[in-house]
Each structure stands twice: as C-alpha cells, then as structure tokens.
Design a protein that fits this description.
The structure is a homodimer. The first copy, chain A, is an alpha/beta fold. Chain A has 15 helices and 20 strands.
C-alpha cells in the first residue's frame, strides 16, 4: 500500500464533466489499495475572473482580502471533487488550509509554507477516505488566509508529500511530461523520461512553465520524486528526481525560450568600486527581479553595464537606472524590449566543455546575432533579437540532436571545440564583443 | 457612538460598482462616529451558479462539501467589500466564520447558530476597523463549514447584533421596507413605518419574503429592533420591533399571497383515533413541511382530511398520502396544485373579532370561492383557485383600506360582524362547508 499525492491542474478540473473524470481516476487509484491525497487547483478561468473583479474595484487591492477572495477558487474545486468522488461510491473529504492546517508566514499573495500538521489528514486516510486538499492556500499565525503565489498548488502538493512522507507525487495536467523544448516550436521535440531537479529549475526559470519553481526547490530539498503526467492519457510522463550517473552522460537535456525578457544598458559608467551596488540596490529595493547581468571590460576607466528584467518591470527599471546613471556620472541608459532569451540546459555540462561553443556556432550558422551571454554550471543562455527566437530554438534542438535519446546521438562536430568557453568571465567578454559589432 | 450592524443583500452587491457604493455607505456611517459591523450576502447570482455546477455532477451532493462550496459566495463578497472600503481610505477587515468564530450545530445546509465569540470582532472595532462578516456561514465542532439555509445572512446579522449587543440592525436590500401587500399586485400598497415581529413572522411564512423567518424569530427572542430599508435610497424604511399599544389598535397590517402551495385531500378516511398521526408521521419523516391541515366533521364514521404542502414537495407527498390512504382504508387521494393562499395579518386581530368575516365577505363580493380556511391569533388564510389570487389580494387590500394609515380608516361594515369567527374549530368547519359547494 503506497501513499500517493496527486495534484490536478485547473484545466483538468475545468468543467463538471472533467471533475467527474478526475474523481474516477482518484477513486480507481484508491481501489487499487493505495492511500490517496489529492491536491486540486481552481477550475480553469476562475482565479483570473476573481482577479478581474477585484481590479474593477481598485488597482491596489488589500492583499489580505485579495488572498481570502482568491482562495475560494480551490475551495470550490475541492468540494466539487469530493462531491464527485462520493457520488461514485467513494468516501472523500475536502480540507481547507485552516482545517488541515497548513501554516504559512504572512506574506500575502506569495506566502511560504512553514509547517503542515498531518494528524487530521492521517486520521481521515486511515478511516478509508480520499482526502482532497485545497492547493495554493494556507493560514498565517493570526488565522488569516494566505496564498502561495501563482501556480502555488504545485508547492502545496510537494509540501504535503514531504510532510506525509508520501511514496510518490503525481503532477497531473494537460501535458504528458517535460519536453526537450516547446513542441509548438520544434515538432521533433522529445518527451524526457527522467530529468533532474536542477535541470527543471533552470527550465522553469527560463519560462518552460513545467512546474512551479518553488515546488521543484522543495521537492529537491526533501528528495521527493515528482512524476509529471497527463491527467487523461494513461501513457507518458516525466520523472523529476535527483541527478544520477546515467544522467551525467547527457550533455544537453533541453532548450528553453523566454519571451518575457527585456534589456537595459547603462553606457559609460565610471569603472570604480561600488558602482554595481549603487545601481542594483534601488532595483532590489523596488522588488524588481534582475536576471542576467553583464559588465564589460573597462576601457579607459569607463564600462557598460547591461542587465535583463521581466518586461512588466521595464518601465520602473528604466526610471531607476536613469537616476542611478545620473548619480554615477554615466552617459545614459538605453533599453530594448524586442529581445528573447534562448537557453540550453543539461546536467552533463558540469563535466563537458564545449556546449557553449557548439551553441554559438549553431546560432552563427543561422545568422542569429548574440546580444548577451550568461552561463551557469548547467545552462548557457543567450539574449537574441526577438524575431530570431524560434529559429534559435530550432537550430539548437537540431545541433544537440535532442529528438534522439542521448545514447544514439552522434558526437559533436570537431570545429565546435575550438570555441570552448570555460568561465563566466570569458562569456561576458564574448557577449560584449558580439554586441558591439 | 452607536454600534450598528448593517446587512446587505445580494442585489446590493451584484457588481463591483454597487460594491463600491455600499462601501461608501458603510464608510460614511463609520465617519459619523459609529462602530460598524457589516454582514454581506453573496453577490447576486453567485449562489445559484454554484448550486447548478454541483447539480451537474450529482443530484445528491454530499452536504458537508456542498456547504463548503456555497460559503465561498460570501467569502468573495466580504473580501471585495473590504477591498472597496480600504480603497476609499477606510480600514476594513473581512471575517469568515472560522475567524470570528461563529459556532453552529452540524446540520449542514440548515445549521443553527449556537454561539458567536465576539472577542475578535470587538478588538477590531476598537482598533477603528469596519468589520465585514461573511453571512450565511458557520463552523461546527469539527471545524467543518456549515451554512444556515437560504437567506441565512439575515440570521447571521441578527445573531451578531444580539451577541454584540448592537444598538441597531439595518437590513439593506433593494426594497425600502415592508408593505401592506405586494406593490406589483396592488398599486396603492403602503409602506409600513413599524410592524411587530409576530406580524412579520406571519408575512414571511406566507411568502412575502421580507426577512428570513429565523432571523425574525431570533430578533424577537433577543428583542433586537430591525430596520428594513433600501440600500441606495435615503428615505423610507420599516422598523420591526415588539408589538406595542399603538399597534394594538391596528386591525390588519398586510395582505400576503403565497403562490407555492398545493393541496392534497384524502377522501373518506375512517374517523377513529390515530388516523392523523398515521398520515402525517410519514410526511414528517420525509421532511415535508405541511402548512394548513383541515379535518372535516365526520359524517357516518368517515371524514375528509386536506392539507397543503410546498409545490416542490407535492409529488412525494402524494405518494406518501396514497400509501397512508391504503393502510387506513380510505377511498383515495386527490391533489390540486392550481391553488394559492391569501392571508390577512394583523396583531390587532387578537382582540378584534370580525376580521375573518370581513375577509370572507370581501372575497365573496368578488365571486372568489374559498377552498380552505385556517386562522391563528394574528392571521386568517384562505386557499383559493390560483386564477383568483391577485384579485383576492386587491379585494382584501381595499376592504381593509390598507392604503390609508390606520387612524384614518373608516369603521368596518356592519354586515361583516355577523359572520364573526372566533375559533379555529369553527373556521375549519366553515372551510369544509365552503369546499363542498
């Protein structure tokens, strides 16, 4: 008898009919002899509709109230799912965050789970119930309802699985796993059977929207294996787990395209200590998340600093960067929101040089100009002109033969090795060179 | 500084714009120096839409889950109202039943309030907040969410006012008070400035839909005066309070029309002890609420028994009555759903004979045949053919000159006195007589 946590996304629960199907699925699992905890998202569209209603009243809703309102989406779907399971002859009970309870801090709209009490859930499971837990929500120390941020139901599910010491967690959605890249861009994109937490983290943060990034972090921390699969298709699925020897041999797992980046460059900043701090402190104070940061080598005591921010933060970032530029005695600020970020991700990069150079080569073969480069242990990202984004993904998917299983790929081209990149610093230099031509 | 409880109905909160208007109203009251507790219903249409979704899954939803789902309507409206008040510069906090807490028994879908803890609300009021409490909901001893039955927000408001020892409770809706009858039927219908709890109880149960009957009972028990008024009109209003000397002089306060009655008659029941019990026990076991019961005088050892039930219960009631008729050796069962009940209500009837006879006379003057009669201390009801319902209301409104203030009405016609009815028994006899012609 295994303890299974199943999480269902909003599109799997979009209509009463779909809810009945999900109910059958959970019930079938329970009848097989497993203990089943289900985490439900809100029915598709409900959360957005609630947000729009609040925004019709004011642009700046009180966050405590906003969370109390938003949490009703999951309250409805969990009750409906329990009703559906019971109508099929099962025994199901919905549980809201105050009933579990799921304790969080008081950071409304983006709360962190602090502790999950498991006594009530365990008792209900023991009594033969399927327990349906409302995802996305918690309660703080004053009994206020909190929410965990967009996509927070994934986090709820992983946290519950960790707290309950579940044998497996299944994230059920309308896609049947994690792919080497977006199948809408590259038809040959291949579903991965297995991928490491670290790689998924890079893919999530790069916009692949596979799993909420915090859920992956939590799964990694507690070493909970996560199976991502389709709600209504019996086959497929990708297991997200810790990196193992087999995966070490894989050079590149996937290619990600992030369309939500925009670029800010501060020109001719006097090159002296403390400059970066003066620039980025105001951005951080304004809660603007900065992704890539590139500082060029200094020429005659001046340097250019470029960074990327999410598109929705560009206007504010530009204002703050202008203020900073003035204070620092820089020449000015230019911005560009017609850019995208293309990344190749792979655990194997840790021990395989040459991935970056093969990437640059492939982009160059398609005449895609690289504007910025950044590298980490398991990814290489390039900022390119928006209009070349999808072309870049296709070139890279081909270059690394991601449509084939790792064992059957051919060796990298010899020429690529010459351009091997070994450190961030070199990459930064190269980036500046590319940008200036 | 007064402590005011304001309750807003669903049509006053139907859109974000209306919510903003209600917010201004509550805020204005708070700025006048009063402590304000607001009880909000769900936005109009929301509860019905939730019910329909559940019914798409099954005809018999688990009641615990049904209540958890239904309670979200008020959770959303309270949060939105708090958001609106805060956006106008006020300080508002929504409170759900588990946050207050409002304790009920575990009768899901129709729970009774057992206790309201006031510590949290009082603290928030003291800190200068407008407290917005979700109506219609409570929690039971196991932390399950319960609901108080349709229109339960009125009950929440009255219970809160009683627990908080409020100075006044205002029930704000889209009508500006309680009328002598439905103004859609009688154009001259007059708004009452004041009415007793007892009269409203009769009017509510007769279908006037003024206030939820349990709310009135609770207000009467705790002697909380209830002011019914229009949300968006500054004038008008009807105060519901205990009957006083002034009201004793009023003979008739209002005329009510209930279109949701249907009639069941069991013919030729052997007239012996225990017959009524054998008939009505199964109905009560099936949770069918029986309104009027008329047993005719016995003729040669046989009697006819008629009763009325809500239209939605007629099919079940008919089945049960047939079973009972068979067991009792009765001749058969006939039903009629083309009937309505017309009632005149007035505290003054207690001490004024002649109201019933004036009623019969007036109906007779319009050729309206009376099928059943029942009387209480403060009302007389007649079942008549559906097609005469509105005519009957107009005839009675005219006869008792309800469009005029009580002091300016002319004395009843002399002829009416002859037909004076003094007890239920006589009325029942009369009913049977009338029916048989």
């Amino acid at each position: 008898m295994a303890l299974v946590v199943q999480k269902y996304g909003g599109s799997s629960l979009a209509t009463p009919d779909l809810i009945k199907k999900v109910a059958s699925k959970a019930l079938a699992r329970h009848k097989k002899g497993d203990q089943v905890v289900v985490v439900a998202s809100a029915m598709k569209g409900v959360t957005d509709s609630l947000i729009n209603t609040a925004l019709e009243i004011t642009d700046l809703p009180t966050l405590r109230e906003y969370d109390s309102m938003l949490s009703t989406g999951e309250q409805v779907s969990t009750a409906l799912l329990a009703i559906a399971i019971n109508s099929l002859g099962g025994n199901a009970r919905s549980m809201l965050s105050f009933q579990v309870p799921i304790h969080t801090n008081s950071a409304f709209k983006d709360a962190r789970i602090e502790k999950i009490e498991t006594k009530n859930i365990k008792r209900l499971l023991k009594e033969g119930n399927i327990v349906i837990v409302a995802g996305f929500q918690g309660i703080d120390h004053d009994n206020n309802i909190t929410t965990l941020g967009r996509g927070g139901s994934d986090t709820s599910a992983v946290a519950l699985a960790a707290a309950l010491n579940a044998d497996v967690i299944e994230i059920c959605s309308d896609v049947d796993g994690i792919y080497t890249t977006d199948p809408h861009i590259v038809e040959k994109a291949r579903r991965l059977d297995k991928i490491s937490y670290e790689e998924v983290l890079e893919l999530s943060s790069l916009g692949a929207k596979v799993l909420q990034i915090r859920a992956v972090e939590m799964a990694m921390k507690h070493e909970v294996p996560v199976l991502c699969l389709s709600t209504f298709s019996p086959t497929g699925g990708t297991l997200v787990t810790k990196g193992d020897m087999q995966m070490e041999q894989i050079t590149v797992s996937g290619v990600a395209l992030d369309k939500n980046e925009s670029k800010v460059t501060i020109i001719n900043v006097p090159d002296k200590p403390g400059v970066a701090a003066k620039l980025f402190k105001p951005l951080s104070d304004a809660n603007i998340s900065v992704d890539m940061i590139i500082q060029n080598v200094s020429e005659a005591g001046y340097t250019d600093i470029s960074f990327t921010v999410r598109k929705e933060d560009l206007a504010r970032a530009k204002r703050l960067a202008r203020d900073a530029a003035e204070n620092l005695g820089a020449k000015g600020v230019v911005t560009d929101d017609k850019v995208v970020k293309v990344s190749v991700v792979g655990l194997g990069m840790r021990s395989h040089a040459g991935v970056a150079s093969r990437m640059f080569e492939a982009l160059s073969s398609g005449n895609v100009n690289i504007q910025m480069i950044s590298t980490s242990e398991i990814k290489v990202s390039c900022v390119v002109d928006k209009k070349y984004g999808e072309l870049a993904v296709r070139l890279l998917h081909d270059e690394f033969e991601l449509h084939k299983k790792p064992g059957s790929r051919k060796a990298p081209k010899k020429t690529a090795k010459k351009a091997g990149v070994s450190s961030k610093k070199t990459a930064a230099k190269k980036a500046s060179g590319t940008k200036k031509k």
